[in-house]
From TrEMBL:
GO terms under cellular component: membrane
Official protein name in the record: histidine kinase
Lineage top rank: taxon: Bacteria
EC number, UniProt record: 2.7.13.3
Membrane-traversing stretches: 28-46, 58-77, 84-100, 106-124, 131-151, 163-182
Keyword Kinase: yes
Catalyzed reaction equations: ATP + protein L-histidine = ADP + protein N-phospho-L-histidine
Record-annotated Histidine kinase/HSP90-like ATPase domain positions: 321-413
Sorted UniProt keywords: ATP-binding, Kinase, Membrane, Nucleotide-binding, Phosphoprotein, Transferase, Transmembrane, Transmembrane helix, Two-component regulatory system
Record-linked PANTHER family: NITRATE/NITRITE SENSOR PROTEIN NARX-RELATED, NITRATE_NITRITE SENSOR PROTEIN NARQ
Length: 420
């Protein structure tokens, strides 16, 4: 539903007095302040002639009282309680000074001042808790009552002022009820929005923890595999150096330490044990498995050009696992967000780093829904950054000018060996 141009200033004013932030808070605040100040100025220029002509007040007195009454309107945004006290005092002064004009004029609150009172009650109802705005209304009613009691000697009959008081009470009470309803509704919406934001933050934190745990399971699996190899080699080395007793003792110690560390590693893996035991005991993928991943991607309609000069086992298993996961997540994002787009996957091994680059073109225009890859691994861009950070590498993720997307990572080839 579109918003009409005529309703925009009113909505901006409501956002200001409610303390809400819109899409452009500075612009809305400026416009809201302009509306409040403009309203106060209009009430001032209406109040002064009314007090002078209809209520026979001196011009300086009318000027001062109207100024006090109208300045409380913008003041209520910053200092609502102070503004209400000042306004109530103004009501009492105006009612006392105009008590001689009961026969023909509205009393004890002149019409322009009644409008100002209504406006400030609306501001309080929108911004403050209901108890504050209701207390302000009772203060204004008490002020009218005090003026009527103090002016008892000047009152001739109830008909001269009773109807005016009832009209004032009714108008302000209706305005207060409406403003409290709107204000409480906005306050509840803000509470719900804050709660929703807290839930989203908690979900993001939980997702980050789960992602780190998933990465830890994979890395511990790789490390445990490497340690088991060390253990086997140390055990077999004793028989290859039978003529060196000292070396046999050292290899025995190495095997004992590797066996103990392997047991501790298995305990860590048990603590990180997922519910899916089949996936838990499955071997971790390497760069040799990337062609299978690419074939799965091509089956759902995204052509992939693959180029690699990395031989399986040429780099650390941790580096191979990270490279595989980066390609996996990048291809999954292509299927989800750019179905049927052409993709280029490149792996280049340098002297010190393995460069992984996945670039996709913008998707062709099509109304066909995108199919999902059979196995995505559940790793997002956050997990990709976590993996690269563990290897002290670098990753770049950015959209391209032609509408495509680029994922480029540089993985130190010695990082996995240091980590192990």
């Amino acid at each position: 539903m579109t918003e009409s141009p005529r309703s925009r200033p009113l909505r901006q004013l409501v956002r200001l007095v409610e303390g809400r932030r819109g899409p452009r808070p500075r612009t809305l605040m400026i416009r809201g302040w302009i509306a409040l100040v403009a309203g106060a100025v209009v009430l001032f220029w209406v109040s002064v002639p009314s007090l002078v002509v209809d209520y026979d007040l001196a011009l300086p007195v009318a000027f001062l009282l109207a100024s006090v009454q109208c300045v409380t309107l913008p003041l209520a945004v910053r200092l609502p309680r102070c503004a209400m006290i000042v306004h109530v005092v103004g009501i009492m002064l105006i009612g006392w000074l105009t008590r001689g004009s009961l026969e023909d004029d509205f009393w004890p609150v002149p019409v322009p001042n009644l409008l100002a009172l209504t406006a400030i009650l609306i501001v309080l109802g929108l911004r403050e808790e209901w108890i504050v705005s209701v207390s302000a209304w009772w203060l204004s009613f008490l002020a009218m009552t005090v003026v009527v009691v103090l002016s008892d000697g000047d009152l001739t009959s109830l008909s001269e002022w009773g109807v005016d008081v009832m009209v004032s009470v009714t108008v302000t009470l209706i305005a207060l009820a409406v403003s409290i309803t709107v204000g409480q509704r906005g306050r509840v919406r803000r509470i719900i929005a804050d709660a929703k934001r807290d839930v989203e933050l908690e979900q993001a934190r939980r997702a980050a923890v789960e992602e780190r745990a998933r990465i830890a399971r994979e890395l511990h699996d790789v490390v445990a595999h490497s340690m088991s190899i060390v253990h086997i080699q140390a055990e077999s080395a004793r028989y290859r150096v039978a003529d060196l007793p000292a070396a046999q003792g050292e290899f025995t110690d190495i095997a004992r330490s590797a066996r103990a560390a392997l047991g501790e590693m298995r305990q860590l893996l048990a603590a990180l044990h997922p519910e899916d035991e089949k996936a838990f005991y499955a071997p971790q993928p390497t760069v040799a498995d990337i062609p299978d991943l690419i074939r799965s991607t091509e089956k759902v309609g995204s052509p992939v050009a693959f180029s690699s000069d990395v031989e399986p086992g040429a780099v650390s298993p941790l580096v191979e696992l990270t490279a595989y996961r980066i390609v996996q997540e990048a291809l999954s994002n292509v299927i989800r967000h750019a179905p049927h787009a052409a993709v280029q996957v490149t792996l280049r091994r340098g002297p010190l780093a393995l460069d992984v680059r996945i670039r996709n073109d913008p998707p062709p225009p099509s109304d066909a829904p995108a199919r999902r890859i059979a196995e995505t691994g559940g790793h997002g861009l956050r997990g990709m950054r976590e993996r690269v950070a563990l290897l002290k590498g670098e990753v770049e993720q950015r959209p391209l000018e032609n509408g495509g997307y680029l994922v480029a990572a540089r993985l130190p080839t010695t990082a996995g060996e240091e980590s192990e």
